[in-house]
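A quick aside before the break. I want you to see a complete sequence-to-structure record at least once, exactly as it would be stored in a machine-readable document. Don't worry about memorizing anything.
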Amino acid sequence: MVDDLSGNVSGNVPGSVSGYPSHVAEVIARDQSILDSFGMTVSGAKDGVCEIKCIVPETLVNAAGFAHGSIAYSLMDTACAYALGSLGVRGVTLNGNTTYVKGAQANSTLHGKVSVVSRTSRIVSLKGEVFLQTDTGVELAAHGNFIFQLIVVRT
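That is the input. The structure line, written in tokens, reads:
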């Protein structure tokens, strides 16, 4: 549990996440069903930066044959939560704006990176990018800006 906005963490951390400090591992472990639903894997979360990837599930491909836009948005939004977690705080999305640049198909690999841009005692601004892995390298698929309100978590 996060006791206050300074990021003091207490309580048990679920054992399913290893390799991360307890304040990051707890947030990731509690989100496991979200990660599984979108096929996401956290590559790293440290110092206000989170890298995350996913393989586009066939169940989230729209009628036009492209990955639903919610995947890129969710990739960045989820990474925002872990970027905050890496700083020992938690927050909720107040606003998220995403610009879609290139579509992905089923089984495509998307890589996302989010970083904290600014932080006050209650509000955090973050920016993110999602890249599509192609045969020739990577291409920008989406980018976005997010505003999170810091919260106190009570259990």
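Two observations worth writing down. The two ends are 7 Å apart (CA to CA). The chain has a mean pLDDT of 87. We'll return to this after the break.
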